[in-house]
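example protein:
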Amino acid sequence: MPVGAGSGESAREALAEMRRMLVVLRAEGRGPGAETAPGVSGPGRLGDLVKRVGEAGVPVDVRITGTAYDLPPGIDLCAYRVVQEALTNVLKHTPAAHTTVRAS
């Protein structure tokens, strides 16, 4: 197979992945780097993230156990980004999967 053969298909797949990820990252007119509204924690924003991932075709259940408490902003954002990255990987690698996010 010549070098570059099949690159059109790879490009189409990459574009489709990018579109799925953009659905996840977009939130009501805010870019992916937008700051969180005051008083809204990372775990508090999981509902929006789960909704966007569901709209992209991956059903997600969220199970949070224990008592919720405020985290320092950096840790809070980091926890949210870890879940966001995990769900983006599900979209990218197993878009037909049913996913559960568990936190305690």
In short: The chain has three helices and two strands. The CA atoms of residues 34 and 102 lie 25 Å apart. The beta strands are 60-64, 99-103.
